[in-house]
Task: structure prediction
Amino acid sequence: MYLLLSARPSPYARKVRIQLAEKGIPFELITEVPWDSTTQTPRWNPLEKLPVLICPDGSSVFESRLINEWVEARHPEPPLMPDDLDARFAVKRFEVICDGACDALILQLFENARGEEHRSQPWIERQQRKVDGALRELARVVEGREFCVGQAFTLADVATGTLLGYLKVRWPHLDWPQRYPDLAAYSDRMEQRPSFVGSRPTTQVISDQVV
Ligand SMILES: N[C@@H](CCC(=O)N[C@@H](CS)C(=O)NCC(=O)O)C(=O)O
Result:
């Protein structure tokens, strides 16, 4: 059986949880706080980040997009990647935008954690512009559509639904649902899928000082 190193709020880990659930692949979920010294993450990933998928043979796959690709290659049914080359790149474009927005959010989280005296407002604003830009672009592309790419649920929906779900839990004050009601309705639809219901993000306490 696969093991998955995951954190409860992690949008990156949630992408893998959703993919495994959509494919009906059994796995044992190991919940960690990757920012704490108690985490076993560095044992499996030299970059000390989760998610990490640990295979029955003891090898590990890390970096959420690589895990998604790896799982897709080894467990192709049901497919979450289209066959058509242009559609595949369209899916990857969504993944790049959503992961980039998550990165910008996490950078802000830790910049804020430095405390009022030490935080850099220009840095926070730069990161927030990336999040705003990502949401603007997602709203433009998703408007009036059931799924991000083509007529079926793909890894693009996994990435987009996960980013939006993360925003709702960790950044509830942002006004994107009012600015982009279509995107908000899309997010509500995605959150109804059993794979999303079973992996709703919740907050975790970080005990170590990270910054
Ligand atoms: N690009 C990575 C990002 C993963 C990531 O940043 N994970 C966070 C948890 S949400 C982490 O483990 N951070 C610990 C650290 O950076 O030391 C991916 O897609 O897997």
Notes: The chain has two domains: 2-74, 85-197. Strands lie at 2-6, 27-31, 52-54, 60-62. The pocket of glutathione is lined by residues 7, 10, 12, 34-35, 48-51, 63-65, 99, 106 (CB under 6 Å).
